[in-house]
TrEMBL record:
GO molecular function: adenylate cyclase activity
Protein name: Adenylate cyclase 1
Species, as recorded: Stieleria neptunia
Keyword ATP-binding: no
Annotated EC: 4.6.1.1
Keywords carried by this UniProt record: Lyase
Positions of the Guanylate cyclase domain: 397-529
Amino acid sequence: MSHLRLATFHAGLRINEVHVDQSVVVGRRDPRKGDPPPVALHRTPTETRLIVADVRQKEMSRQWMEVCPAEAFAFEIKNLHEHCPVVIVGDQEIPPGDTRRFDDEALVELGGRLTLRIEAVDASGMGSASYRSLESLPLVPGGQGYVEHTAAIGQFAQSEGQEVNKMLQLALQVVQESVGSNAFFQKCASAAAEMVDLDRTVVLLRGEAAESDKLPVESEPESGWFQVAHYSRGEASPGNDRGPISTTLLKRVRETCLTVIHQPKTGWMGGSNSADANPAGANAAGANAADDDADRFAPSLQSVQCAVASPILNAEHQVIGVIYGDRTICAGGSFTTGISDMEATLIEILAGALAGGLARRNQERIRNSLAEFFSPKVADQLVSDPQLMEAKEIDVTALFCDIRKFSSVTEKLGPRKAIEWINDVMTELSQCVIDSDGVLVNYMGDEVFAMWGAPGDQRDHANRAIACAKSMLGAIERLRQRWNDVLPQKFGAGVGINTGPALVGNVGSRQKFQYGPLGNTVNLSSRLQSATKQLGVACLAGESTVRSAGCTDQCRRLAKLSVVGIEDNINVYEITLHADENWRRLKVEYEQALDGFERGRFEASAECIETLLIDYPQDRPSRDLLERARAQLNEPSKDFDGILTLTKK
């Protein structure tokens, strides 16, 4: 049976290591049962437990998983939890109640930045076969691993200051190189070879990463790895002339997400053991190690004395690439020293720099695509927290803005000038949405559809939508002046706003992304935009929007509407750009007349409106209300309810 080494890490730093040769139950502490504080190995007459979390970590049970040694450097992990999966780094999960077998090692996520590395070792504690992994976790973009790498290099620099200074200068050149250039990957490959004295270095990306970044691919291995850069020293100038790269080594890196060093099990590769060995003995040992590796791994490593592969990770801790390097057997079969942990750590630093560069480029690409729909502020939020884009039901404010006299204007201007005018108008209106941190959901002919309240938290989404509507009305006035010489006739806009619950997410398709809301809230907003024509105003808002914004004193209630396709009747309010003293007087006296009309006081309402129209003869809502009051005076309705029913969408 295998012996197991269980190492616990916090943010990439090893905080505990234990060796066992029997089954171990891993879970959180229960002080009521006499468990010691984490991290600790606790033996009882009935079981051996590794306590890795405190009692406060409720998502982990006391008996979370069981690790059982197996034969031939293998072990099994059984998920003891009733509901939650055990997550293995490398995009694997063990469902509740299931058992999985692992060869050599596995890295388990414990939550709270904790990880547990399980490794099968021989009785003396040496790693299995000719592979071993670094004790630290590789660098993740935005992660915490730089602390331990810096500390390790600092210790090395105390004794080897000049050499490590040279190495770090090479690493700095790679970090400073623009990741947008193809030279970035080539410089990374050559720097790795110079820093660690390697005969060959190769930068590989997984197929999806290479394709998404549109990189110049030099080779396309069947395994799914794409070679994007290589450096080779000596006679074999093309990187592939030295033989293929071990797919077993790449698979091991991908499965463990760790830097893996390949060197033979015996002492033929240098150090105290090889120093005493004669050349013949060394050659024989090397041949044996190569034969052993050929049996277990791949013939690609038979001419390789030692190799190192460090993962390039994305923010989700997934392997998207590898920096690989090796030293080959010298002419005559002689050997030099192997790859040390410090040298492997330097390769990790380069892999971390490359990962960070790829992450920045990916974020910039995402940010540029998001700029089509979102303001820079909202786009930055989405780049930092992509989960905000997930579908959800939430209160939002939707806005529709339609260009009035669109058809007649485009017909007058002709195709070329009409496109120029449309672009000018849509640009101005869209900028109003962006300036208020709204989402440009869609353009529908001569109409702009926008939303506030998602994807990020905007508690003042109704206020933002109203402010945007006013900005749009101001933009239309500026556009009229700008196009006055070409378009003397007045064009305008109608804006409808409504607030309420909606289902928000990608309402487009796989072929075309469209982030926006669905539901009655959106439908009513569209109906209110159409109702601006029938009520003779530029902007209408539903009562939910006005009350949410707390601005009833700045808006005029026009009527209680029954809208086509909407079950509930709603109060609608006019939003105006010029709310001066004259408009406020109009608002107060009109609302008094409207209140009297809805209470059935038709004569008093008509008299109030007639007086109001003397000073405001062009006010369309006042004229319509007077007409409705006179109609009730002439032919009173038996079932009068004061509701204005619209017959058009």
